[in-house]
Amino acid sequence: MYFRKERDGVTLFVRLTPKSARDMIEGVEATDGGRAHLKARVRAVPEDGRANAALEKLLAKWLGLAPRDVTIASGATSRVKQVRVSGDPEALAIKLSALVSPDR
Question: Which of 6, 20, 31, 64 is most solvent-facing, going by the fewest CB within 10 Å?
């Protein structure tokens, strides 16, 4: 699972590729170790937090949330990040499962 439900939201596991041709969510990918993460691309460069800010904005738009509800929790200087999304954990889990379902 590429996210974990928390008491007041969810934590997403994201692999970010900066300096891409466009901002987009590519789907979910499993690593060799069996962990899953959401693959995201942003046009921003990884300098002065620009790529992280672009990721927060992209995820907020993708989830239909306010940008203030999405923050980088860890991995600010790494490609692999944990992103905190505030809100009802059950509703967010349903939305996240539907957004990356094979039928989409």
Answer: 64
